[in-house]
Fold:
Amino acid sequence: MRVVIQRVSSASVSVNKKVIGSCANGLLILAGIEDLDTEEDAAWLSAKIVNLRIFNDAEEKMNLSLKDVNGEMLVVSQFTLHASTKKGNRPSYILAARPEKALPLFNAFVEMLKKESGWPVATGEFGAHMEVSLVNDGPVTIIIDSKNKE
Structure:
């Protein structure tokens, strides 16, 4: 699994001009699932994300985790994170998992984030055309891939 994590003051996701998920102070998580991903990848990522120390402490140092600041989460599925641009100018998405595999794993990932953090997690609508709005705080944007563990 590959995620792009953005520390946000606010974020929302809309489908057909209607907001279906939002969060305040916390994280917008764009999640891409590839065919080889498993629940092990989702579990590792959920623990990493919730405990990642990317929020400022009293001395303005990134020393606090999402748990420490009672931050909120908005998770949006994004298969394009597995785009390959190696050949030509049209990205290939051959590594991205098909919906029948990706949707159950995406849902499991969201449940793991809920369990790890102890509070609700907002989401987009899997497979829908979504519009994502955010106010990136910092800006802080981090990419994590469960296959590289970095």
In short: The longest helix spans residues 99-117. The chain is about 20% helix and 35% strand.
